[in-house]
Design brief:
Blueprint: E1 10-16, E2 21-26, E3 30-33, H1 41-44, H2 55-65
Parallel strand pairs: 1-3
Antiparallel strand pairs: 1-2
Length: 118
């Protein structure tokens, strides 16, 4: 290994938002966490709402305005016509450049060159 190009690997202090601290080794002296094994629902078995940018608060506000009932919206009328299923009895005409059976003409056979006798 080349000397002088690698960072120092020292003891580091890890601090979680819940207040839990522990020591580990890292290239940084202080590591700050939002969630750790002490407060994560998977490890604790308790559900805990983490409000990120007010999302939980906005959801609760919308939920209270409906009184907990499901809101049924009117169906949106689509301007797109429905397509027929493939293989249906009514087939559409398809524009194509490929020759059809009716317009297919037989090309005259190419003439073979006459053999010269030596």
């Amino acid at each position: 290994m080349k000397p002088g190009i690698h960072p120092l690997y020292n003891n580091a202090k890890v601090v979680c938002a819940c207040g839990t601290t522990f020591a580990t080794r890292s290239t940084k002296e202080l590591i700050k966490l939002e969630i750790c094994s002490g407060c994560h629902p998977f490890f604790t078995g308790q559900q805990k709402l983490i409000d990120t940018a007010g999302r939980v608060e906005r959801f609760r506000k919308r939920f209270e305005s409906t009184g907990g009932k499901t809101v049924v919206r009117a169906p949106i009328k689509s301007a797109v016509k429905s397509l027929e299923q493939v293989g249906s009895a009514a087939k559409r005409k398809v524009l194509t450049t490929a020759p059809t059976k009716e317009t297919k003409l037989k090309a005259p056979a190419a003439k073979k060159p006459a053999k010269k006798e030596a």
